[in-house]
Amino acid sequence: MYDEADLDAIREAKADWEREEVDPVVERFGERKEQFTTDTGGQEVQRLYTPADVADLDYQEDLGFPGQEPYTRGVYSTGYRGRLWTMRQYAGFGTPEETNERFNYLLDEGQTGLSMAFDLPTQMGYDSDAAMAQGEVGKSGVAIDTLHDMETVFDGIPLDEVSTSMTINAPAAVLLAMYIAVGDKQGVDREQLRGTIQNDILKEYIARNNYIYPPEPSMRLITDIFEYCAAETPKFNTISISGYHIREAGSTAAQEIAFTLADGIEYVEAAVDAGLDVDEFAPQLSFFFASYNNVLEEVAKFRAARRLWAEIMDERFDADDPKSKQLKFHTQTAGSTLTAQQIENNVVRVAYQALAAVLGGTQSLHTNGKDEALALPTEQSVRTALRTQQILAHESGAADTVDPLAGSYYVESLTDDLATEAKEIIDEVDERGGAKQAVADQWVQRQIQDVAFDRQQEIESGERVIVGVNEFTIEEEEHVDIQEVTAEDEQRQIDGLESAKADRDEAAVEETLAALREAAEGDENLMPYIVDAVKTYATVGEVSNVLRDVFGEHRPGSAL
Prior knowledge:
The protein is α/β, with parallel strands linked by helices and 560 residues long.
């Protein structure tokens, strides 16, 4: 440890060094033209970091150890020495049969968890034969209309042996109900079901716009899921509070932390206001972050987010269970950083982003395929993306020790800077009435848009280098084979929907939908009714339309 006299001497020596030390390369060429700031225009990066830069942080005392509050160093004491992160490649396209084939391929190649992508009609609560679905069936993920489709997706895949993440939000209750129903049909104890539903509606209003219902009934569905799963599926994560889409919309790393945790605060408050005990549902909360190219900034971001969430759950909500304070998160490499130009470069980008996520202590990871700037990833590019994780796990040494960059003057300083900046943003969100009100006022969206605009200007001016796009370009790109979903695939899905409807008991469908309507008009928990409905092979669209009739639909620009 250094005393104050030592630190003063270090500060003075650094100042002398900065004044007097002239690198001969800089003397000849000048400093590089890129700005020396963190990746998205955040903190200024110093040329050198010393013990004096972290002296005021008391970081050696405050950091603690992995598995101990404030969890800056990780939520588990063993890190990856006890268990590697879950390798969860995001997959799903076209028909349920094709998605089942891709899932089985990935499992055979060593993937350790499933991550399910849904097409746009499913995400918006429409069936494949709806007019609104035309031309979009199976394009951005798998089309799910009835329980039969979900059974097909998981045919031959025991749900007690895998965990499944489902990227679904507005109709999350319906798809979760189908997953539970598949488990019931397989004879799996509901307490053994593991996975995550995204179920984060606030970030839809902020960044993605894939919402159906107005905020109040949407929040009711979320808290109903919290309550139901705490009793029925205690190992299933009931929400993945998502900073990923906030970052992909253009935010800084500090904004990604702040707006994500502010949304988390809103969900916890809604659940507590609904009468739930915080320690009953909070251990099932999970988070979802992006990982970008600036490796050290991303590591610091993950560490700062853990620290802040522990503080929030302790100070705001008096959580007693340590699991309520542990920020557990999935990471996806950054889709918006992938370029259509020189797509082989994307393999390198993804590898660096994956390294940052692992050094930052992620619990699960998806690595993007190199061709995702063009289309759904091919089987070959998915394999390369998965191999990237496997090489990282088994050859790089990055998983050998917990929080390997702890104590780095730069990483500790940047962790503190990001935590401080994110906390200031959260405080401003509070002053504006909380996340829901700040989103309703478009304040959150404007903050992100301003950063995105500035960043695009930097790219267009050449101030920010994107390799292969505005520097190091080539005249002619090689031909790239891409994954395609055809009109014939869409028709096959519609034919399957018609067949499922023809085989079901219509009276049972009508009875369960009527019971759901009555429950929605009252204040009962809706999950048992939705589970009953999907078990009769009521469609995603039919269940969603019942709720549309009762709750209404949210319109762009209308008040939250």
